[in-house]
Design goal:
5-stranded parallel β-sheet, 4-stranded mixed β-sheet, 8 helices, binds guanosine-5'-monophosphate
Amino acid sequence: MNNRPADFNKGLMIVVSGPAGSGKGTVLSHLLKDDHYRYSVSATTRQPRPGEINGINYHFLTREEFINRLSRDEMLEYTEYCGNYYGTPQKEAIEMLEQGYNLILEIEVEGAANVKRKYPDAVTIMLLPPSGAVLEARLRGRGTETEEVIRERMAQARNEVAQLKNYDYVVYNYDGQAAEAAEIIRHIVYSERFSTAHNPDIAKTYFA
Ligand code: 5GP
């Protein structure tokens, strides 16, 4: 037994969304250097991209496997995005939270809304480049995307930013400052641990 209040022993569920070009991957890689954080590895039916490793970036499943898992109620949330299923494996997520890790769910806006409905104490953060113009410059700067893809990504980003009102926090990822953005997320999480909403049982258990 340790002498910390019981609620402090549980990790926080942290949802991070952001458009392509927001630099989510880089920011989260900084955050994950902190051993209090873990990344929720999603399941997906999309094909692996070059360099992606099964079990590390995603659990790559066939549509049939994914649907089987859904029918066994094994997903904490899921969505269909650009013709593929994506979902958060429930058991792994709950175990990591119970072990006290802050768990990062890197998911899109619809999944984020579903998580918030199911777990109102999840902290939702949208990561954005400092402006739409910077976002577009980043997408163009990659030099790998066609004009059509860039336009699609920009349209998608507009839809995502329109959902900002459903998020608790917005964090800007300035060019070359991903480590600073990660630090801001750490501050948010640190403060949230002390919120009364995340310590609901104290009044009941304090004198027990
Ligand atoms: P990508 O195919 O580029 O890896 O991911 C496409 C989108 O799906 C991204 O916005 C990513 O955050 C989101 N995504 C990844 N895993 C999940 C998941 O488990 N659930 C939901 N709802 N979205 C996810």
